[in-house]
Amino acid sequence: NAGVTQTPKFQVLKTGQSMTLQCAQDMNHEYMSWYRQDPGMGLRLIHYSVGAGITDQGEVPNGYNVSRSTTEDFPLRLLSAAPSQTSVYFCASSYGGTGEKLFFGSGTQLSVL
Amino acid sequence: EDKVVQSPLSLVVHEGDTVTLNCSYEVTNFRSLLWYKQEKKAPTFLFMLTSSGIEKKSGRLSSILDKKELFSILNITATQTGDSAVYLCAVVSMEYGNKLVFGAGTILRVKS
Prior knowledge:
The structure holds two protein chains of two kinds.
Chain A: E1 4-7, E2 10-13, E3 19-25, E4 31-38, E5 42-51, E6 54-57, E7 64-66, E8 76-78, E9 87-94, E10 103-104, E11 108-112
Parallel strand pairs in A: 2-11
Antiparallel strand pairs in A: 1-3, 3-8, 4-5, 4-9, 5-6, 7-8, 9-10, 9-11
Chain B: E1 3-7, E2 10-14, E3 19-26, E4 30-38, E5 43-49, E6 56-58, E7 61-66, E8 71-76, E9 85-93, E10 99-102, E11 106-111
Parallel strand pairs in B: 2-11
Antiparallel strand pairs in B: 1-3, 3-8, 4-5, 4-9, 6-7, 7-8, 9-10, 9-11
């Protein structure tokens, strides 16, 4: 009964490094998304996918890439980390393509020095 | 620009008190409004509201939506220390493939 699993839970990067945040769900959800949460700003949508092979940008996509080769996995890639990307990242999924009633992973705390 | 504003930003109450959390919104092509509770980590779903004037209820929590005035309230009666959390309001806009627009949240602390 895993739900949405994110790894790693914590990560520290140096400016310019790249890395991939992993997200997997075992609920056969069509919709998956990535959010970042910053103090005082709420959760902001980075990228989302309504099914395998289909991805699209949210409101803050710059500096991030995604792919969706399977229904289960939706990794988020940071191409060249910047201090402005220091944040808590959440992966979330939902049944169907509407993006409502999201199930969230436990988050990744990322610090970029 | 889509916007969701929650108030108050934070509040402290004593066990047994009743609290009302507010959420107002301006979004393009409104579809639904959702409330989430965030304790230490992942937000968890509480309610989804799509129709005006129909109260959703779960135990001591209830919520109602006013689509004419563009706001929703979340009520918690007989508060307990376990209700301490950040409460997030999100509105689903049919732009960008039904994206959720989140408010900044209300931090609730219930003292024993």
